[in-house]
Amino acid sequence: MIELIEVGKTYETKDGSVIALENINLTIQNGEIFGIIGYSGAGKSTLIRLINLLERPSKGRLIVDNRDMLQLGERELRDARKQIGMIFQHFNLLWSRNVAQNIALPLELAGVHHKARDARVSELLALVGLEGRGKAYPSQLSGGQKQRVGIARALASRPKILLCDEATSALDPKTTESILQLLREINRKLGITIVIITHEMKVISSTCHRVAVLDKGIIVESGAVSEVFGHPKQEITREFVGKTGLPLEQIRKPKHVLLRAVFRSSTAQRAIITELARSEQLFGRIVQAETFGDDGGSIVLETGADNEAIQHAVAALRAKDVLIEVLNG
Ligand SMILES: Nc1ncnc2c1ncn2[C@@H]1O[C@H](COP(=O)(O)OP(=O)(O)OP(=O)(O)O)[C@@H](O)[C@H]1O
């Protein structure tokens, strides 16, 4: 069970404080598919990133499976995070690795023996409907297939919770439905709790058991999907119902470049961040961080730096033997 108790998040920026979330109270039961819907800027990303502590709340408590996440030491937190997988809008795959190698990455960094790894990868390929595609590279796959690889990779360490951050927003309607169908199957077969954030009503209505409507950092309505959308109490919920099927999010954030770096120790992780910050003023926010094994892991950084600066920093890090890739741009 995931419990957020009076959780708030305020970002301090050079232009002042930004209140992203205010007094969130939310309980997500084991085994359910829970949706969080809201317009751009409502606080959806912040909320889902609080669940695996990619963001730390400014106030309140977070309890996951009876563990008070904000009280955990570093090692306990790493263990707790292994129970939480995450998938993303832009898939976050390593382009230089084939499908099987992408899926195996968390296992490899956790030190799982190659035979056990191969066996697990075969199981996962079958689970996500990609049998026989293990040797393909991400560039040879469709968007839907890339997201299937993302799902397989997120499930490699057998997490109990899967967080989906706008996981179908880059896909066409037919592919969206096939990925949602896969998520429903995974939830049914494996009993995994799934949390979906989206701005698309149809994602919620076809897939989620319960939903929370988020507006300007506040949950304005929540409950069973049929209840919330069948008898909407708030104007914003009525808007979502009225516009079923339409992409509501008109205003997107400016495009930023995403860089993914894989590291084998926390010292290497610090070196990567320091290098990015120091050498080229690339400093950006960490949009994803995963830990694998004791000390290894990967981070995805979002940066608004120009192309030349990015290429320069990437070359500098590669010279230091850091596995780093530009994910978009
Ligand atoms: N790292 C940050 N620093 C400062 N402000 C932030 C940061 N991240 C988010 N915000 C602000 O917090 C608010 C909520 O943002 P958040 O990204 O959580 O919303 P969202 O509903 O996911 O929207 P979107 O779909 O556009 O990402 C916004 O006002 C946003 O500008």
Question: What does it look like?
Answer:
The chain is of the alpha/beta class and 329 residues long. The protein is built from eleven helices and 14 strands. The strands form three sheets. The protein has a six-stranded mixed sheet, sandwiched between helices. About 3% of the residues have low confidence. The protein binds adenosine-5'-triphosphate. Adenosine-5'-triphosphate (ATP) binds next to strand 1, strand 2 and helix 1.
Helical amount: 25-40%
The end-to-end span amounts to 38 Å
Tell the overall outline. globular
List segments where confidence is low: pLDDT < 50 over at least 5 consecutive residues.
Answer: 245-254
Strand content: 25-35%
Strand order of the largest sheet: 6-7-8-3-9-10
**Mean pLDDT score:** 85
Number of strands: 14
Topology as H/E string?
EEEHEEHEHHHEHEHEEHHEHEEHE
Secondary structure tally, helices: 11
Radius of gyration: 19 Å
Largest sheet: 6 strands, mixed
Cofactors, ions and other ligands in the entry? adenosine-5'-triphosphate
Structural class of the secondary elements? Answer: alpha/beta
